[in-house]
Write a structure and sequence with these properties.
The protein has about 400 residues and is α/β, with parallel strands linked by helices. The protein has 2 domains: about 150 residues, Rossmann fold (3-Layer(aba) Sandwich); about 230 residues, 3-Layer(aba) Sandwich (Rossmann fold), CATH 3.40.50.11900. Helices cover about 50% and strands about 15% of the residues. It has a 4-stranded parallel β-sheet, with helices on both faces. A 4-stranded parallel β-sheet has the order 6-5-7-8, with helices on both faces. β5, α10 and β6 form a beta-alpha-beta unit. α6 packs across α11 and α7 packs antiparallel against α8.
C-alpha cells in the first residue's frame, strides 16, 4: 500500500513526551494536564485552556534510578515514568492527575512531588481513589473523587471553567475526535483493510498524547486518505488477532506481531481505542458531569475491577471484538509484575480456550520492547496454530 502522508510525522510525535505540538500548546499558555489511566476522564482534562497528555516514557531502555526508589520487582511502566521524570522529561506539565490503582503506580505518583521532579513552582499532584465496582454506590463515590481531586483543583489552582456549559463543549470536541478515530479503526473490520494494525496504533497514540485541536486536522486528513487508499491485492497476513491487556504504548509491539504474520485488528488494552474512543452521550435529566462519570465508569474495563459484572464485561468485550473484527484468536498481554492483569490473563485464557473455543496466546512483557526473540517465537507458533485450525475447518 502507498504510505500514509502523515505517518512519519505521527511517528516522530511519539518519540518524546514533549513533542512539538505539546510545546506549541504550552507556548500558547495552555495548561498541560498529565494522566496515566482511563480512570481519569480524558474529556475533563480538555476543558477550555487545558489539554490532556497521557503519560508515556518513549525510548526508555534503563530504569536504574527509578529502581533505586521502587526496586526492580515492580511494574516497569511505573518505573519508566519515574525514570523519565528524573531525566526532566515532564517539565512541561502543570499537574499530574493519578489514581491509587495499585501500590506501584501510587508510589510512582508520590515520587513526583516527594522528589520535586517537575521544575514548575505551580506543579501539583492529586490522586483519586478509584472505585472497584461499577454499581450505583461506586458511581456516586467516583463523582465525589473526580470533583474533589480533579475538577476543584483545576478551578481553584488554574482558574479553569468547570461549569456544565464548559463540560458540554468539551464533550462535543471529544466526541468529534472519537468519531474520527472510530471510523479509521472500523476499516480493520474489512476482509482486506486499507490500514495495518501498526498504523492504527500510531494514530490512536498521537490522539492521546497531542493536544486534540492540533492533531485533529491531521487525523481528519488521514481518514479521507484511507477512504481512497487501495489495499494490497491479497490480504498480506496469515491471521487476524485481537490484542487484550495492560499498558501497550509502543507501536513496535504491534509491528512485531504483524511481522510474525498476524494483523492486529482490535486493541483492547490500556492506550487502546477499546475503551477510550466511545462517544459520550448525555441522557435526559443528566448534567454533563454526570454523563462523563457514568460513561467512564461503565466503559472502564480495568482488571482492578473484581466484581462479577465487570469481570464478565471484560470477557464479553473481548469476544465481541473477536466477532466484529473477524479475528482468529486473542493475544492476552500483561506487564511484568502486574498482579491484576496476571490474574485476569490466566482466568481469561481458560475461559476462551476451554469454554469459548477461541484460541488464546498469553504473554508477559517488559515496558520497553528489548529482546524480542522469545516473543517472536511465541507469536510465530500461535499464528501457525491459527493457520492449521483454519485449514482444518475450525477444529
Amino acid at each position: 500500500m502507498k504510505d500514509l502522508k502523515h505517518l512519519i510525522y505521527f511517528e516522530n510525535l511519539l518519540q518524546e513526551a514533549q513533542n512539538e505540538l505539546v510545546s506549541k500548546a504550552v507556548d500558547e499558555g495552555k495548561k498541560a494536564l498529565g494522566y496515566n489511566c482511563y480512570y481519569i476522564p480524558e474529556v475533563l482534562l480538555n476543558l477550555d485552556g487545558c489539554f490532556s497528555s497521557r503519560m508515556r516514557a518513549p525510548n526508555c531502555t534503563s530504569t536504574d534510578v527509578a529502581s533505586y526508589y521502587m526496586t526492580n520487582r515492580t511494574c516497569p511502566y511505573a518505573r519508566s515514568l519515574l525514570e523519565r521524570a528524573v531525566e526532566g522529561g515532564y517539565n512541561y506539565l502543570d499537574c499530574l492527575f493519578g489514581g491509587e490503582n495499585c501500590a506501584t503506580i501510587e508510589r510512582m505518583e508520590e515520587h513526583f512531588f516527594l522528589l520535586d521532579l517537575v521544575k514548575k513552582d505551580s506543579f501539583f499532584v492529586t490522586q483519586i481513589d478509584p472505585p472497584m465496582k461499577g454499581d450505583k454506590t461506586n458511581l456516586e463515590y467516583y463523582k465525589v473523587q473526580l470533583m474533589t481531586k480533579v475538577l476543584k483543583p483545576m478551578q481553584e489552582r488554574m482558574g479553569v471553567d468547570i461549569s456544565d456549559e464548559a463540560m458540554k463543549k468539551a464533550i462535543e470536541r471529544h466526541n468529534e475526535l472519537c468519531r474520527v478515530i472510530t471510523e479509521i479503526g472500523n476499516f480493520r473490520k474489512l476482509d482486506n483493510p486499507p490500514i495495518t494494525g501498526y498504523e492504527f496504533h500510531v494514530i490512536q497514540l498521537v490522539s492521546q498524547v497531542c493536544p486534540h485541536e492540533y492533531i485533529l486536522p491531521y487525523l481528519k486528513e488521514t481518514l479521507e486518505e484511507l477512504k481512497k487508499r487501495k489495499p494490497e491485492k491479497k490480504f498480506p497476513f496469515r491471521a487476524r488477532v485481537v490484542v487484550v491487556g495492560s499498558e501497550i504504548d509502543d507501536p513496535e509491539f504491534t509491528k512485531l506481531v504483524e511481522m510474525c504474520g498476524a494483523m492486529v485488528v482490535a486493541d483492547r488494552y490500556c492506550f487502546g481505542s477499546f475503551p477510550g474512543r466511545e462517544e459520550i452521550e448525555i441522557l435526559e435529566g443528566e448534567t454533563a458531569f454526570d454523563a462523563i462519570c457514568r460513561h467512564y465508569l461503565h466503559w472502564n474495563q480495568c482488571a482492578r475491577f473484581m466484581d462479577g459484572e465487570k469481570i464478565q464485561q471484560r470477557h464479553d468485550e473481548a469476544m465481541r471484538l473477536v466477532k466484529e473484527f473477524k479475528a482468529d484468536g486473542i493475544i492476552y498481554e500483561s506487564m511484568k509484575f502486574c498482579e491484576f492483569w496476571s490474574y485476569e490473563k490466566v482466568m481469561a485464557h481458560h475461559l476462551f480456550t476451554n469454554e469459548e473455543n477461541i484460541p488464546c496466546c498469553t504473554i508477559e512483557k517488559e515496558y520497553a520492547l528489548g529482546a524480542v526473540g522469545q516473543l517472536r517465537t511465541r507469536f510465530q507458533a500461535f499464528i501457525e496454530s491459527l493457520e492449521i485450525k483454519n485449514i482444518q475447518g475450525g477444529k
